[in-house]
Amino acid sequence: KLVGEGADDAGGVFDDTITEMCQELETGIVDLLIPSPNATAEVGYNRDRLLLNPSACLDEHLVQFKFLGILMGVAIRTKKPLDLHVAPLVWKQLCCIPLSLEDLEEVDLLYVQTLNSILHIEDSGITEENFHEMIPLDSFIGQSADGKMVPIIPGGNSIPLTFSNRK
């Protein structure tokens, strides 16, 4: 029952409710979704797409994610797509499809460019001797979509980044 809301059910009350839920998810009222780094930096593709918030890990967030999953299941069963503008990378992850560097680039172009620069740094004249003068990273950490520094490989925050192990 919709309390305090007028509704004339011609098949639209359910749709309106789902649309409002999607709008709340996209506007940040519920902090499960965040803009892609491309949106924040105003570069690349998918600037209008959202990612799952990696900081949304409290018990209340997990309950909300479970509800979002139920909402997705209802959308599939009723054949009524959700108006959620999440990046293709999110859908691939939900379907357990392996991600590629191109998938990451579609949501975070600058990060992929940085990774490629480090990978091919010898093309810029950087050697083992001057690597740490040019690369300010001490370990295998990177910035997640929510701006926090996180390991990019298991145990990465305790593995020194060097010219020889950068690949």
TrEMBL record:
Keywords: Transferase, Ubl conjugation pathway
Residue stretches making up the HECT domain: 1-167
MF (Gene Ontology): ubiquitin-protein transferase activity
Record-linked SUPFAM superfamilies: Hect, E3 ligase catalytic domain (SSF56204)
Stored InterPro entries: HECT_dom, Hect_E3_ubiquitin_ligase, HECTD3
Source taxon at top rank: Eukaryota
GO cellular component, one term: cytoplasm
PANTHER family: E3 UBIQUITIN-PROTEIN LIGASE HECTD3 (PTHR46654)
Protein name: HECT domain-containing protein
